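input
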Amino acid sequence: MDTPLKRTPLYDAHVKAGARMVPFGGWEMPVQYAGIVEEHRTVRSAVGLFDVSHMGEFEIAGPDALAVLQYLTTNDVAALQDGQVQYSVLCYPNGTIVDDLTVYRLGPDRFMLTVNAGNIDKDWAWVNQSTERGTKARWRNVSEETGLIAVQGPKAETLVGRVADRDVTKLGYYRFVRGTVRGVSTLVSRTGYTGEDGFELYVPAADTARLWAALLDLGRADGAAPIGLGARDTLRLEMKYALYGNDIDETTNALEAGLGWVVKPAKGDFIGRDALEKVRAEGVRRKLVGLEMVDKAVARHGYAVHKAGRPVGVVTSGSYGPSVDRYIAMAYVETALAAIGTALDVEVRGQAKAARVVRTPFYPSRVKKAG
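output
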């Protein structure tokens, strides 16, 4: 028997708004409302609201919490200040990826991890089995009690600033504060998955629908609109942000995926360190690159990449990029063919379609770096 799809606290709001609902990572989620291209452009030009309550949240607290996270994740958690966020990776001992995630330092001995929706159960089992018994650290899975709304776009600061009890204009990128937004207790994080300025608002699950409705109502003058998973995918693709299950998974490692910047061997031992150091020393055999289609064609996940008729890689994500007006993709290709400008072919429905390796991101990031 198929497992029933889970629903976020905003399911009824999506249905009422006429969203097209689809299965995603075990959840029933909105793929689009008005249309993917229109929603994509709303985020680039104004402000869009995303339901990301399907994401998972784990908390860990106690004197050994930092040491546990240093061992579990690739990045240097000790470099975090209270109120700061860090992108990182969980690895298997062979160096491949359990999941990518963000780490929030809530206090000296307290942290929160945000993990991918489809990996919640797997990640929860992994962090528990990989944490030595007897450590002075306690895990809590707070996914079901947490709602998450992403507010993204050039007018996001105006909208959130209007309803938050904190001055969000002073909040730097990958920083967060606790406060209230429209009367709802909120962790306001200046993070996102679109390349635009914006925030992710962590709230009690029971208050999510009320805050969602208020933000849409108050943001009407700013052009605010609900945005589905379809536009979320094209937005992140234009930034070359990896999607777990497409561009990274248990068969890929952080170095070939271009995530070597979050692998910090100097911090000491962590799961996968030795394997990744071996890869670093030997050099990666393939790289995740950005492709621009020369021929008009969509290069979809799983399509083969060729050079002079020889298979040399595989497409991991691909679509039309509304902001760049090009058909773009991400693909793993042999390292020798990863240089900018390299001409390649993508097999699309049995036909070779011309492509070339280009610089990424395809679209320039507009996140607010300074605090």
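quick obs: The chain has three domains: 11-47+144-238, 56-141, 285-358.
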